[in-house]
Specification:
2 domains, Dihydrodipicolinate Reductase, domain 2, six-stranded parallel β-sheet, 382 residues
Amino acid sequence: MTIVANPSLSVAAPDPNAPKLRAAILGHTGRGDYGHGMDVAFNDRPDLEVVAVADPDPAGRAKAAARTKAPRHYADYRELLENEKPQLASLAPRHSDQHHAMGLAALQAGAHIYSEKPFTTTLAEADELLALAAQKKLRIAVAHQMRLAPNVVHLQQSLAAGLLGDLLEIRAHGKQDARAGGEDLIVLGTHLFDLLRLFAGDPVSCSARILQGGRDITPADAREVRDRVGLVAGDEVMAQFAFANGVHGTFTSRAKLREHVGHWGLEIIGTKGTARLNANIPPHIFILKSTGWKSDGRTDEWRPLETDPALKLPAAAQGFAAANARVVDDLLQSIRDRREPACSGHNAMRAIEMVHATYHAALTGRSIPLPLITRTHPLAAP
């Protein structure tokens, strides 16, 4: 498969004479709190005015108001939306079981959305939000920030220019920590699935095996986890995805592999070489240099991609503040251009769809075609 580079992701400088968009932050201390920098993603921008924050917890609300510099704060986000009528809202909690209700209320109030990931707990929830946004001509961006990292954009362009030859395979490994298995699949896996789709396009089918204590999972293994990201199951996940033109993708999360694999991320294999993307903010990108097999063995060395722009990024351009700023920049540009943002709600939905396809495949023992017809959670009781 030959990778085609995305169109330019350049963002025009804000018009200093244009009115600022009114922005609000919806959070919930003690119930998802605020995801990585999602509370301050709108701070100190020339094109936005933070008008209010909502948080049911009084102490958390006061602290959030101080961090966000919001002049007004509310216990109920619905009251905020009705009174303040923001044009942009951050769905900040890490607990994605709150995103659907918050998102519907924000869209109905006429606000574009920047949402923490995972976007929603089910595909049906995501579909409803996307349909309402389309109906109201509003934009949704989701915090899959690595998609817009300068070196990920550069890597995609380099792959399109033939850095690794034709794409053959992408191997994704989750963090494989205490969350190994189903929790890793949804919490970190959605980041990796978003990148898989960036490099390889949409998958056409999925097969998988998910184990719990060494046996195949059943619906009875479904459980909630602390971050309330929807039902999960299993402590080991092995999934395979078929992409167009024979490209093969895998996702693995097994705690027993953590020491061997090391950092979570992707290994991208082409006809002329292999690259590794260590997931981080910003990611780190390496190229495999190998002596090839000889009678006395083989020497492999992972070296930083020499043209990686992240190697020269100043400290201010690293971390979640800069990563969120890139997503918000692109979101605001997409509003002006009347296009979908790069980190779109649609892309976030497709990442969740790959998670749900993994469960469908594991539970049925069959290869599952994509896109999915069933939009409810595969672990939910019928």
